[in-house]
Write a structure and sequence with these properties.
Blueprint lengths: L12 H4 L6 E2 L9 H7 L4 E2 L13 H26 L11 H19 L1 H9 L1
Length: 126
Amino acid sequence: MTTAANVHDSRALADLLHGKETRVWGDSAYRGQKAVIERCAPGAKDFTNQRARRNHPLSDAQKATNRTKSRVRAKVEHPFCVVKRLCGFSKVRYRGLSKNENRLFVAFALSNLFVSRNKLLRLQRA
């Protein structure tokens, strides 16, 4: 989903869920969205990181759980690095949302090919 820059990530959560999810992994933008998750995906568990509060630090078990959640989420961030660095999508041009969205979808398709290029080359040689 593509939105304007003045729309916060958490506002798009309902449009990102299809309802059959079992887990929702999100960064800090999706903290506190439990009601939206329960409404849009009733069978999903919220796997966003827990936050420490003033005078209430996280326990060692909570820190370990957050570390595990961050490892899973980090795998999703790699295609964004490829799109930003190699495809030059660090800044968008003001062409309108539909044109920027089209460029974004093509860039992510190409990033999938770039990330799996070694597998594809091995299949070609065999």
